[in-house]
Amino acid sequence: MHRFYCPDIADTLMLGEEDSKHCVKVLRMAEGDTIEVVDGNGTLYTCRITMAHPKRCAIEVLDKETETPHWGHRIVLAIAPTKNLDRIEWLVEKCVEMGIDRIIPLRCHNSERTVLKTERLRKIMVAAMKQSLKATLPRLDEMTSMEQVVSEPFDGTRCIAYCDALLPREQRLTLAHAYRPGSDVMVLIGPEGDFSPEEVQAAMAAGFVPVTLGESRLRTETAGLMAIASIHALDSKREV
Fold it and tell me: Which residues contact 112 (CB under 8 A, 6 or more apart)?
């Protein structure tokens, strides 16, 4: 069954213009056809099309159910966007497909990109949510300073990953040792030039656990994906 996104579907009973066009003109769906609509807040609606208009596709709700994220806890990734937008767009898409609650674009001392337009990223997230059959749209923050993220209250495990040989390395744990499966977790990933020593020290002083993602030096987006994939893998092991 085809799935669409409309955050206010319960009030409007009508798809947005973009989804209406896709439903009626691209998929050629008609009155009486059944579709799924998610509101991004965890509710899945089974609907019937009552007016197949390419700009204002009207529906009636046949059934609704709550679909909570399958991982059952908060996963937050704070990551410095790459200079090449294609790479961060790819990362965001894959994180949503795997499962994540919040993505924070991080502005650091060594950031290659200090301004980020989030509108396209949100569209990518919506498409990934629908494609991976989820009903909850992760939160995407605007570009946020390292200082603000480090000082933000967070009731869970907080990790900072870095690879600079000049930074304290003997204190680092593997993510598998730092993270307790099933608990809330936030992971910080720096830019291609890594975090500055001052940023690492400030994070550690605020309670962040220094971690390593392995012996290989990873690109920023690879490190972010590695962290989220590892968290889900560790969660799956706990459930066995």
Answer: 80, 81, 82, 83, 191, 192, 193
Q: What is the pLDDT of residues 8-44, one digit of tens each?
A: 999 999 999 999 999 999 999 999 999 999 999 999 9
> Are residues 36 and 85 both part of a single domain?
no
Beta bridge partners of 204: none
| Nearest CA-CA partner of 138 in 160, 167, 105, 179 | 105
Q: 182's torsion region: left (phi>0), alpha (psi -120 to 50) or beta? A: left
pTM confidence score? 0.93
DSSP state, 43? E
Residues 154 and 208 placed together within one structural domain of the fold = yes
Angle between helix 220-239 and helix 85-98 axes, rounded to 10 deg: 10
Give the domain extent around 195: 75-239
* Cα–Cα distances in angstroms (integers) from residue 27 to residues 19, 52, 55, 58, 197, in the given order: 10, 11, 14, 15, 53
